[in-house]
Automatic annotation (TrEMBL):
This is ABC-2 type transport system permease protein. It is found in: Membrane. Pfam families: ABC2_membrane. The chain crosses the membrane at residues 37-59, 79-101, 134-153, 159-180, 192-211, 247-269. GO terms for molecular function: ABC-type transporter activity. PANTHER family: NODULATION PROTEIN J. One of its GO terms (cellular component) is ATP-binding cassette (ABC) transporter complex.
Length: 277
Protein backbone atom coordinates (compact mmCIF):
# COMPACT_ATOMS: atom_id res chain seq x y z
CA UNK A 1 0.00 0.00 0.00
CA UNK A 2 1.51 3.33 -0.99
CA UNK A 3 -0.08 6.76 -1.14
CA UNK A 4 1.08 10.34 -1.70
CA UNK A 5 -0.17 12.16 1.38
CA UNK A 6 0.05 15.75 0.23
CA UNK A 7 -1.90 15.13 -2.94
CA UNK A 8 -4.21 12.45 -1.65
CA UNK A 9 -5.72 14.48 1.21
CA UNK A 10 -7.02 17.14 -1.21
CA UNK A 11 -8.07 14.54 -3.74
CA UNK A 12 -9.84 12.07 -1.48
CA UNK A 13 -11.60 14.16 1.17
CA UNK A 14 -15.28 13.38 0.80
CA UNK A 15 -17.85 16.18 0.80
CA UNK A 16 -18.94 16.99 4.33
CA UNK A 17 -15.75 15.69 5.96
CA UNK A 18 -13.94 18.11 8.19
CA UNK A 19 -11.27 18.20 10.83
CA UNK A 20 -13.75 18.38 13.73
CA UNK A 21 -15.94 15.65 12.26
CA UNK A 22 -12.97 13.33 11.75
CA UNK A 23 -11.75 14.09 15.27
CA UNK A 24 -15.16 13.24 16.73
CA UNK A 25 -15.41 9.97 14.78
CA UNK A 26 -11.99 8.85 15.96
CA UNK A 27 -12.55 9.91 19.57
CA UNK A 28 -15.91 8.10 19.68
CA UNK A 29 -14.40 4.94 18.19
CA UNK A 30 -11.61 4.81 20.77
CA UNK A 31 -13.99 5.55 23.64
CA UNK A 32 -16.36 2.77 22.53
CA UNK A 33 -13.42 0.42 22.14
CA UNK A 34 -12.39 1.13 25.75
CA UNK A 35 -15.90 0.88 27.20
CA UNK A 36 -16.56 -2.44 25.45
CA UNK A 37 -13.41 -3.94 26.95
CA UNK A 38 -14.23 -4.94 30.58
CA UNK A 39 -10.54 -5.36 31.40
CA UNK A 40 -9.74 -1.78 30.43
CA UNK A 41 -12.76 -0.38 32.30
CA UNK A 42 -12.01 -2.37 35.45
CA UNK A 43 -8.27 -1.76 35.48
CA UNK A 44 -8.81 1.96 34.79
CA UNK A 45 -10.92 2.22 37.95
CA UNK A 46 -9.17 -0.22 40.27
CA UNK A 47 -5.54 0.40 39.38
CA UNK A 48 -5.32 4.00 40.65
CA UNK A 49 -7.06 2.98 43.88
CA UNK A 50 -4.51 0.21 44.46
CA UNK A 51 -1.66 2.63 43.79
CA UNK A 52 -3.05 5.19 46.20
CA UNK A 53 -3.82 2.80 49.07
CA UNK A 54 -0.73 0.61 48.67
CA UNK A 55 1.79 3.40 48.20
CA UNK A 56 0.34 5.46 51.06
CA UNK A 57 0.71 2.47 53.37
CA UNK A 58 4.23 1.48 52.23
CA UNK A 59 5.87 4.88 51.76
CA UNK A 60 3.78 6.45 54.55
CA UNK A 61 5.35 4.02 57.01
CA UNK A 62 8.82 4.86 55.74
CA UNK A 63 8.27 8.59 56.22
CA UNK A 64 6.50 8.20 59.55
CA UNK A 65 3.16 9.27 58.09
CA UNK A 66 4.06 12.96 57.76
CA UNK A 67 6.48 14.79 55.54
CA UNK A 68 7.43 18.34 54.73
CA UNK A 69 10.03 21.08 55.02
CA UNK A 70 10.85 23.32 57.96
CA UNK A 71 7.67 24.42 59.68
CA UNK A 72 5.55 22.02 57.63
CA UNK A 73 3.77 18.89 58.80
CA UNK A 74 2.12 17.49 55.69
CA UNK A 75 0.38 14.13 55.87
CA UNK A 76 1.91 11.68 53.42
CA UNK A 77 -1.45 11.00 51.75
CA UNK A 78 -1.56 14.68 50.71
CA UNK A 79 2.04 14.45 49.52
CA UNK A 80 1.30 11.24 47.58
CA UNK A 81 -1.98 12.25 45.92
CA UNK A 82 -0.37 14.48 43.21
CA UNK A 83 2.13 11.72 42.39
CA UNK A 84 -0.65 9.18 41.87
CA UNK A 85 -2.52 11.64 39.62
CA UNK A 86 0.58 11.97 37.44
CA UNK A 87 1.17 8.22 37.55
CA UNK A 88 -2.40 7.58 36.39
CA UNK A 89 -1.85 9.97 33.49
CA UNK A 90 1.44 8.27 32.65
CA UNK A 91 0.00 4.75 32.64
CA UNK A 92 -3.03 5.77 30.55
CA UNK A 93 -0.78 7.56 28.07
CA UNK A 94 1.49 4.53 27.85
CA UNK A 95 -1.47 2.28 27.00
CA UNK A 96 -2.32 4.54 24.06
CA UNK A 97 0.55 3.17 21.98
CA UNK A 98 -0.43 -0.38 22.84
CA UNK A 99 -3.96 0.27 21.55
CA UNK A 100 -2.51 1.66 18.33
CA UNK A 101 -0.42 -1.48 17.83
CA UNK A 102 -3.58 -3.54 18.24
CA UNK A 103 -5.07 -1.50 15.39
CA UNK A 104 -1.96 -2.16 13.29
CA UNK A 105 -2.11 -5.91 13.93
CA UNK A 106 -5.83 -6.13 13.11
CA UNK A 107 -5.50 -4.01 9.96
CA UNK A 108 -7.64 -1.16 11.29
CA UNK A 109 -4.72 1.27 11.21
CA UNK A 110 -4.13 0.58 7.51
CA UNK A 111 -7.81 1.20 6.80
CA UNK A 112 -7.61 4.55 8.62
CA UNK A 113 -4.56 5.57 6.59
CA UNK A 114 -6.23 4.92 3.22
CA UNK A 115 -9.44 6.68 4.32
CA UNK A 116 -9.98 10.39 3.53
CA UNK A 117 -9.64 11.29 7.22
CA UNK A 118 -7.30 14.11 8.19
CA UNK A 119 -4.14 12.59 9.72
CA UNK A 120 -4.05 15.18 12.49
CA UNK A 121 -7.68 14.39 13.35
CA UNK A 122 -6.83 10.69 13.60
CA UNK A 123 -4.20 11.44 16.24
CA UNK A 124 -6.24 14.15 18.01
CA UNK A 125 -9.35 11.97 18.27
CA UNK A 126 -7.35 9.16 19.80
CA UNK A 127 -5.64 11.58 22.22
CA UNK A 128 -8.96 13.11 23.32
CA UNK A 129 -10.32 9.63 24.08
CA UNK A 130 -7.30 9.02 26.31
CA UNK A 131 -7.81 12.42 27.94
CA UNK A 132 -11.44 11.57 28.78
CA UNK A 133 -10.33 8.33 30.42
CA UNK A 134 -7.63 10.15 32.38
CA UNK A 135 -10.13 12.74 33.66
CA UNK A 136 -12.39 9.98 35.03
CA UNK A 137 -9.43 8.29 36.71
CA UNK A 138 -8.21 11.55 38.26
CA UNK A 139 -11.67 12.24 39.71
CA UNK A 140 -11.72 8.76 41.25
CA UNK A 141 -8.22 9.20 42.71
CA UNK A 142 -9.07 12.62 44.17
CA UNK A 143 -12.29 11.36 45.79
CA UNK A 144 -10.58 8.35 47.36
CA UNK A 145 -7.58 10.47 48.38
CA UNK A 146 -9.83 12.94 50.19
CA UNK A 147 -11.66 10.06 51.90
CA UNK A 148 -8.28 8.75 53.09
CA UNK A 149 -7.43 12.12 54.62
CA UNK A 150 -5.81 14.18 51.86
CA UNK A 151 -6.41 17.92 52.02
CA UNK A 152 -6.49 19.95 48.78
CA UNK A 153 -5.43 23.50 49.65
CA UNK A 154 -6.89 25.03 46.48
CA UNK A 155 -10.36 23.45 46.84
CA UNK A 156 -12.69 22.69 43.92
CA UNK A 157 -10.86 24.98 41.48
CA UNK A 158 -7.68 23.18 42.45
CA UNK A 159 -9.25 19.84 41.46
CA UNK A 160 -10.01 21.27 38.01
CA UNK A 161 -6.43 22.53 37.81
CA UNK A 162 -5.18 19.07 38.81
CA UNK A 163 -7.09 17.60 35.88
CA UNK A 164 -5.52 20.18 33.56
CA UNK A 165 -2.04 19.30 34.83
CA UNK A 166 -2.78 15.60 34.35
CA UNK A 167 -3.95 16.24 30.78
CA UNK A 168 -0.94 18.40 29.89
CA UNK A 169 1.35 15.78 31.33
CA UNK A 170 -0.32 12.90 29.46
CA UNK A 171 -0.16 14.42 25.96
CA UNK A 172 3.61 14.18 25.45
CA UNK A 173 3.77 10.58 26.64
CA UNK A 174 0.69 9.66 24.59
CA UNK A 175 2.51 10.99 21.52
CA UNK A 176 5.69 9.14 22.48
CA UNK A 177 3.91 5.82 23.03
CA UNK A 178 2.16 6.18 19.66
CA UNK A 179 5.49 6.85 17.96
CA UNK A 180 6.91 3.73 19.61
CA UNK A 181 3.83 1.76 18.57
CA UNK A 182 4.10 2.81 14.91
CA UNK A 183 7.84 2.13 14.82
CA UNK A 184 7.68 -1.31 16.43
CA UNK A 185 4.30 -2.44 15.05
CA UNK A 186 4.37 -5.14 17.71
CA UNK A 187 2.41 -5.31 21.00
CA UNK A 188 5.07 -7.05 23.06
CA UNK A 189 7.84 -4.71 21.94
CA UNK A 190 5.69 -1.65 22.64
CA UNK A 191 4.78 -2.84 26.15
CA UNK A 192 8.45 -3.51 26.94
CA UNK A 193 9.53 -0.13 25.56
CA UNK A 194 6.96 2.00 27.43
CA UNK A 195 7.40 0.07 30.69
CA UNK A 196 11.16 0.45 30.34
CA UNK A 197 10.59 4.21 30.40
CA UNK A 198 7.72 4.83 32.79
CA UNK A 199 8.81 2.97 35.94
CA UNK A 200 12.40 4.32 36.10
CA UNK A 201 11.15 7.82 35.31
CA UNK A 202 8.71 7.64 38.24
CA UNK A 203 11.33 6.60 40.77
CA UNK A 204 13.94 9.18 39.69
CA UNK A 205 11.55 12.07 40.24
CA UNK A 206 9.92 13.90 43.13
CA UNK A 207 6.92 11.53 42.97
CA UNK A 208 7.30 9.50 46.17
CA UNK A 209 9.88 11.36 48.26
CA UNK A 210 11.20 14.95 48.38
CA UNK A 211 14.05 15.35 45.91
CA UNK A 212 16.45 16.59 48.61
CA UNK A 213 16.14 13.23 50.37
CA UNK A 214 17.24 11.29 47.27
CA UNK A 215 20.85 10.45 46.28
CA UNK A 216 22.70 13.24 44.50
CA UNK A 217 22.81 11.45 41.13
CA UNK A 218 19.03 10.97 41.22
CA UNK A 219 18.60 14.68 42.00
CA UNK A 220 20.47 15.51 38.76
CA UNK A 221 18.20 13.22 36.73
CA UNK A 222 15.11 14.49 38.53
CA UNK A 223 15.91 18.05 37.43
CA UNK A 224 15.42 17.06 33.75
CA UNK A 225 12.67 14.52 34.33
CA UNK A 226 9.23 15.66 33.04
CA UNK A 227 7.51 13.73 35.82
CA UNK A 228 9.13 16.03 38.38
CA UNK A 229 7.51 19.08 36.78
CA UNK A 230 4.08 17.46 36.58
CA UNK A 231 4.26 16.30 40.20
CA UNK A 232 5.63 19.62 41.50
CA UNK A 233 2.82 21.61 39.85
CA UNK A 234 0.15 19.22 41.13
CA UNK A 235 1.74 19.09 44.59
CA UNK A 236 1.72 22.87 44.87
CA UNK A 237 -2.03 22.86 44.18
CA UNK A 238 -2.64 20.22 46.85
CA UNK A 239 -0.27 21.34 49.62
CA UNK A 240 0.71 25.00 49.33
CA UNK A 241 -2.02 26.57 47.17
CA UNK A 242 -1.71 28.73 44.04
CA UNK A 243 2.07 28.83 44.10
CA UNK A 244 2.52 30.38 40.66
CA UNK A 245 6.33 30.43 40.69
CA UNK A 246 6.16 26.62 40.74
CA UNK A 247 3.00 26.04 38.71
CA UNK A 248 3.64 28.32 35.71
CA UNK A 249 7.21 27.16 34.86
CA UNK A 250 6.07 23.54 35.18
CA UNK A 251 3.12 24.14 32.84
CA UNK A 252 5.39 25.91 30.35
CA UNK A 253 7.76 22.93 30.26
CA UNK A 254 4.90 20.44 29.84
CA UNK A 255 3.32 22.49 27.02
CA UNK A 256 6.69 22.69 25.23
CA UNK A 257 7.09 18.92 25.55
CA UNK A 258 3.54 18.38 24.27
CA UNK A 259 4.19 20.50 21.17
CA UNK A 260 7.51 18.83 20.36
CA UNK A 261 6.34 15.22 20.88
CA UNK A 262 2.99 15.82 19.13
CA UNK A 263 4.86 17.28 16.15
CA UNK A 264 7.11 14.23 16.02
CA UNK A 265 4.09 11.90 16.27
CA UNK A 266 2.38 13.66 13.36
CA UNK A 267 5.53 13.41 11.23
CA UNK A 268 5.80 9.68 11.99
CA UNK A 269 2.11 9.21 11.25
CA UNK A 270 2.43 11.00 7.90
CA UNK A 271 5.47 8.91 6.96
CA UNK A 272 3.53 5.79 7.83
CA UNK A 273 0.90 6.90 5.33
CA UNK A 274 3.34 6.61 2.45
CA UNK A 275 4.92 3.38 3.63
CA UNK A 276 3.77 -0.20 3.58
CA UNK A 277 1.99 -0.94 6.88
Amino acid sequence: MSTDLGASEDRTLAPGNGFLGDTWVNMRRWLLKSVRNPFIVTSSIVQPLIFLVLFSQVFGQVTGGAIGGPGQNVEYISFLLPAIIIQVSLVAAASSGIGLVNDIETGMFAKALVSPMNRGAVFLGKTLAEVARICVQIIIVVVVGVLLGANIATGFLGVLALMLIGILFSIWFTALSNVVGIQTGDTESTIIAVNFLQLPLLFVSSAFLPVDRLPQWIQYISAVNPITYGVDAARALVITGWEWNTILPSIAILVALDLVLTGIALVVLRRATSASV
